[in-house]
């Protein structure tokens, strides 16, 4: 009897392994926070216990306050109400919370930011590593998100620099988690990054709201396309609060349509907590209810 049980258990473990690494993990919420200049805090954001909840601090930028690039050295530019102490406190209160720093974003003040090909990529990677390591320690970070949004014509070093940076940060146990945030017109350099370094990238926060689809069927078509460009199980549907793309409860119709078409909705990305404070976090609540409801194999 005991032997049979052991065998059944081994069979279960083998089966679970075969179903892929995400088979039995919790579903994820990705919540950008701190980019708009509003004095937001973590406290009012609803967090369900059985969801892996990721706050993505927006943004850590390789630039001085006048937006001049610093050869890889990142500084925090998210709103100062998101203090290191408040990150520690929300993680203590909710052990399922992780904190990530998103790299770059669209702009700093009125200056548009973009990838530039560093003269010495190894030095850039080293500077980025050192600055993010100290930022991770100070702010109790678990990971980074890559959100460069403008690229020069020749962007060859982007995939190399980002891929090696993530690999090094993970190898040195500075971070345990890395995500990328392509959008409609920036998908190419991200595909290159994902093709070469997909093993160290946990989720793809594709900005579906930039694909300009407003209906559930349009959303499904966009998801089907992005699923061929990235890994469908790492790809998360996303929603921009008071923003572009699909709006209102049609988003949840789209999630249901994804599942009806055989996709596992493994999580949801929302931009952003700053905007959601005006509607009592309606989309965060309903997304987590959806994720809790929809069963994972
Ligand atoms: C970036 O690199 C890719 C691959 O070499 C290229 O196809 C693309 O046009 C480049 N520029 C942008 C803005 O994506
Ligand atoms: C880090 O890289 C070294 C050298 O490639 C490797 O031996 C080691 O297992 C890696 N450690 C982690 C935690 O990935
Ligand atoms: C949860 O599942 C029930 C039963 O299938 C369904 O009626 C309800 O609308 C679902 N809730 C959400 C938020 O998806």
Automatic annotation (TrEMBL):
Signal peptide, first to last residue: 1-26
GO biological process terms, semicolon-separated: carbohydrate metabolic process
SUPFAM superfamilies: (Trans)glycosidases
Pfam family, one: Glyco_hydro_18
GH18 domain segment(s): 27-288
UniProtKB keywords: Glycosidase, Hydrolase, Signal
Top-level taxon of the source organism: Eukaryota
Regions that span the bilayer: none
InterPro entries associated with the record: GH, Glyco_hydro18_cat, Glyco_hydro_18_chit_AS
KW Iron (keyword) present: no
Keyword Hydrolase assigned: yes
UniProt GO MF annotations: hydrolase activity, hydrolyzing O-glycosyl compounds
Family: Belongs to the glycosyl hydrolase 18 family.
PANTHER family in the record: CHITINASE 2-LIKE, GH18 DOMAIN-CONTAINING PROTEIN
Designated name of the protein: GH18 domain-containing protein
UniProt source species: Salix dunnii
């Amino acid at each position: 009897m005991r032997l049979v049980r052991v065998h059944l258990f081994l069979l279960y473990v083998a089966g679970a392994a075969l179903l892929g690494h995400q088979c039995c993990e919790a579903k994820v919420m990705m919540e950008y926070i701190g980019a708009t200049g509003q004095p937001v805090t973590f406290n009012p954001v609803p967090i369900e216990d059985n969801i892996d909840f990721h706050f993505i601090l927006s943004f850590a930028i390789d630039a001085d306050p006048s937006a001049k690039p610093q050869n890889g050295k990142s500084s925090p530019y998210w709103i100062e109400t998101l203090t290191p102490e408040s990150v520690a406190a929300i993680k203590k209160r909710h052990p399922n919370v992780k904190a990530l720093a998103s790299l770059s974003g669209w702009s700093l003040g009125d200056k548009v930011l973009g990838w530039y090909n560093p003269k010495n990529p190894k030095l850039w990677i080293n500077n980025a590593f050192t600055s993010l390591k100290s930022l991770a320690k100070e702010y109790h970070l678990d990971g980074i998100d890559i959100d460069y949004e403008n690229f020069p014509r020749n962007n060859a070093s982007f995939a190399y620099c980002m891929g090696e940076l993530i690999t090094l940060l993970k190898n040195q146990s500075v971070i345990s988690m890395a995500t990328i945030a392509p959008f409609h017109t920036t998908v190419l350099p991200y595909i290159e990054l994902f093709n070469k370094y997909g093993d160290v990238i946990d989720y793809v926060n594709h900005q579906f709201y930039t694909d300009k689809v407003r209906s559930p069927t349009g959303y499904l078509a966009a998801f089907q396309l992005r699923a061929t460009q990235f890994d469908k199980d790492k790809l998360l549907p996303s929603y921009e609060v008071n923003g572009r793309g699909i709006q209102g409860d049609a988003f949840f119709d789209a999630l249901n349509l994804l599942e009806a078409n055989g996709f596992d909705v493994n999580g949801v990305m929302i931009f952003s907590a700053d905007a959601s404070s005006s509607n009592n976090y309606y989309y965060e609540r309903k997304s987590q209810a959806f994720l809790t409801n929809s069963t994972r194999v």
